Each structure stands twice: as structure tokens, then as C-alpha cells.
Amino acid sequence: MTQTTLSRKDRRARAAKASKYYGIADGAAALTMHEAYEALAAADGPKAARLAHDVSQTHPANRHPWLVLGTVALDRREAEAAAQFFDRALLIAPTDAMGLAGLGKARVLKADIFAAIDLFAQAIERGSEDVPMARLYADLMGRLDRSTTAGRNLRKMAQRMKTAEMWLITADAFASGESNAEAAPAYEEAARLAPQPLSNRIGLLKAKLFRQDYQGLIAGADALLSELEERNAHRDEIVTLRMAALRALGDIPRALETLSHRFQDPDQFQRALGFSANCHLDREAFHEAHIAFREALHLVDGGGLWVKRAYGTFLMGQGDFAGGAPYYAGRQPEANRRRIPYENSEPDRLTARERLFLVDEQGIGDQLALLPIIDRAPLPPGAKVTFVGEARMKPLIERCGLGVDFAETTEVDKMNVAPEEMIFVGDLVRYLSVEALAEQPLGGYLRADAARVEAIRARYREMAQGGPVVGIAWHSNDPITGAHRSLALETLLAALPEGALVVNLQYGDREAELAQAARTRPDLTLFDDPEIDQLADLDGFAAQIMALDRVVSIDNTTAHVCGALGHPDSHVLIPKGAACMWYWGRHGSPDRWYGNLQLHRQTQLGDWSGPLSEIAAL
Description:
Layout: H1 8-22, H2 27-41, H3 45-58, H4 63-75, H5 79-92, H6 97-109, H7 113-125, H8 131-143, H9 147-161, H10 164-176, H11 180-193, H12 198-210, H13 214-227, H14 235-248, H15 252-257, H16 266-282, H17 286-299, H18 305-317, H19 321-328, H20 334-339, H21 347-350, E1 355-359, H22 364-370, E2 384-389, H23 394-399, E3 405-408, E4 422-424, H24 434-439, H25 450-464, E5 469-473, H26 482-485, H27 489-493, E6 501-504, H28 511-518, E7 525-527, H29 538-546, E8 550-554, H30 557-565, E9 570-574, E10 597-601, H31 609-616
């Protein structure tokens, strides 16, 4: 029934309802406003604009006509007009989700990306259910290498809306940011709400990869491939995921057989070539790995961020810092490079810089590894250096021996920082060489809180009753390299000295795992310290590590904290092949990076017996 065929009574009832909903006392104007929204939903822009314009003249203090006029202007790609209409709406209702989202879209049309993403984040916080805005927000944040932040904001929308579509957008954002532990449940929720769509079934395969359920992934991929026609474009992604699982399981021959698949999508073929390069690295076939990386690099225009980073770290792992640094520079998205160009880190620019802001990137371990390179940069005497990062890094940076100040990321906008005064901390690798590292490693620059160290040490020694105090970390959640870098807790415990107090340094809830493992070594006391939250309290974590007699860890944040602190008895289990991080090089027991760690390397892929026998003999 249309408005024109309603009875007088029904029309009065609808007018009263519209008046209440739109906040317009005039029933006729309220119904006109409702018709404007209906026209907008029917993609009839001219009618929506005409009706909204009429209401704007009689009720200029109501936000709704301005919201409709702004939306119509957006559809016409009239950025300035849209911005003016949405600004008018937000003057009336500053927290209106539709107004914030609309103004954000207008800012995108005006190429004001940073203002746009801030507005989108506010719209999400205020209850927006605008799915196209969510997709745009995820895309823009991905281009800025801020996908994890996007995922955490989008998850709020998904929890409100409870739709598979929003959970999939959220999951993809987390996956883009390599926040795999957060991506997996989001993919699973999308598949639970809508099990049949192919995108959700592929998402479920990604969740299996992120949860390191490689056998489950292969079985699911095989089942899905058997259902799809040979020319289905999604087969490429499924095949590539299957290849990643085979490689993680150490089945190198079957993983390399994947390259016989006839790829239609060059991006997926590029990823498969990257996995093949890792397979060659696992076999220490360095020449073949080099060829695969080069082929992947030139397959797609621009190379792709991940392959530039992978090839750069491959070269630096081989000791070629000069060759690898320019490729490693390509790890940052174009939008970030427009804001902070790689050229900012060139020697002739740094020699003239009176102040410099080092912008954080990647994980905490990488930041700790890269930060001390600043001492090698050609800055003039007296130059003021500020590290820009997360608040949890502040006490460590302010107490470190590098003479570096600290500022939170949110504070930089208030500090009148010129674009040329900023560099990404990873761009400092251009000032490294194997010879320079051998002459002067980078470790020992952090300083733990001495009072906290002594307090923790006293507690542990009382608990140990004369036995050694050993900290351990044994598991990595990385979906690709995690299986190669991790080992079973029981296996690690077998290499520890009798009567030791074993302190858990592994993040996450490990209570059940520790209880089960303790049965294999009843002579050990396994302790999960409730006073230390290593994820939230990095300063406390540093003090905890310095309170330990010895640390035995896989290659994760724990290892980097030990190196940065200069802990004198730290031992790191290093996997063979592609899972060996570039910091450690390919050979050698003393680490080339920090100088104080002892590296215990696998000689056979997946076999920890050699490294653990070295630990047991200490």
C-alpha cells in the first residue's frame, strides 16, 4: 500500500510514528522525510534529494534531510557538497553514525585518507551497520598496514550485527594484519552463521591453517576441490592454502607438486612461488630458493609487499644486507610510503637531521631487534631521537641505554612532526653489515627495573630452595612457520636440570598444558607467575627474565627480550630452513645479532634432538 492509498486514519498513525522516529513534530514533513529515505533505498537519488530538500527548508535543525542530501551527493561523487551536508548533520547530532560514516566517505573522495579512517572508526563505535563503509575501512586500513586495528574495530560491528558477512570482513582484516589468533574464530563464526557460501568455506580452511590443523586443512581442501569445476577461479586460493599446509607438515615433495596446478590468478601463483622458495630453504637449496623468489617478485606488477619483504629478508639472512635492504623497504604499503618515504633514511638526509622520530612496525620482538641500529645511523651529534610506539614499550625505552625518548603513536600528531623527520624503524637495516655486527653486536641495551628484578629473584629463589631457576617458552602461533619453530612442552622439559624451578614465559593460557607436562617430570616445579602479564606489562616481563638463572626459548619475543637485555645465560632453539629468522643468519652458535644468546640449531628439519642434547649438557 502506497502513501497515496492510505486511509486518513492510517496516514495519521503513520505520520505519528514518523514524527517520533525522525524527531519532526509536523506529521506531513515527517512522512516526506520517510518517503525520502524510501527513495534513497530504491536508488532514486533525484526524488530523495527533492524530498529531503523540502524538509531541510522547513526543519533545518533536523539532521535527517542533511543526511539524505549528503548520501545523494556521495552517489554523484560530489565530494565537497557531500562533506558540507554531512558537516551540517553532525553540527546537529555530533555522534550520528550515518553522518560520521558519510563524512568519512566524502573525505575518501577528497583523498583525505587519515581523516576518513578516523571518522569510520568513530562511526563503528557509535553503532554503524554500514557494510560498504566497513569494507572501505578495512581496505584503507590494510593499505596503511593497520589491518589488525581495523579488525578489532570491525569485530564490534560483527558482534552487534551477527551476520556472516560482517564476520568474514572482520576475519579478512585480521588475516591481512597477520593477527591469526583473532582471525581464526572470526572465520569460524562466519562459517557457523552461513556454512554454504564458498567464501565462508574457504575462510574455514584459513582458520584451520591459523590453528595449525594442517591435516584438517588438507582434508577440507581436497573435499572442496572435488566439488568445484576445473575452471572455478577459487580453486587457486584453495590449492595455495593446501600447499602451505603440506609445507608446514614437512611434506616438501607434495608441496612442490602444487606448482603443476594451472593457476589463473597471478597473485595466488605468486604466493605459491613464495611457498616453493620456503620449501627450497627447508632443504637448504639456496640457489633454487633465490630463483623462486625472483620469479615471484617479477610475476605481478610492483612485486607485492609480502614477496619484497620475503626476498629482502632472504638476502639479509644470507648476509647480504646491502642487497636485501632495498627490497625489505618494499614491505610498507604505498600509502605509508607516501607518508614516510624510504628516502628519509638516506645518509645525506640523516646527517642534517636535528631530530628524528622512529616509527614502530611489526611485532615487539622485531622492534627490540631493530631499534638499536639507530646507534649506527649517521645522525649529527646532539640529534634528538624519539621512538614512536605502543604505551607498553614506554618504560623500557625510557630506561634503555640508547638515549632515545619515547612518544605514543597517538601523541605524534600534537608534536608538529614534519614528514621528513620520520622513518620506519626497519629502514635502519641499511646501516648493517655482517662485518659490523661481528665487530659490535646490538644486544644489552635494555635496562630492567632493578628493584623489580631483585623482588622477583627473591621470590623465585625461595621457591627453588637452592635449585636452578629456568624460564621457558616453547610454542609459536604463526600458521606458516609456527609448527617448525615449536616443540612439545614435555620434550623441552626432558632437557632441563633436576630439581629446577621452571618458570613459564609462554604467553596465553597454558595452565592445562603445564599440569599435564608436570607429570612427566615430577622432580621439576612448574610455575606460572600470576604477578607478571608479559603481553600487557613488558617492563615486568623484562624484570622477570633478568631474575632467572637461565632461559631456554624458541625464537619468539622472549628470545629478543633476552638479547636486548643482555641476559648472560639465554639459549634459543633455532629451526632449520625457512622458519629460521633472518636475524640469526644460516650458521653459527653465538648469535650474530645481539651477541649474548647461544643458538642451538637443528641439523635436520623438525628434529629437536640435537639442540636439546646441547641444552641438557649445559
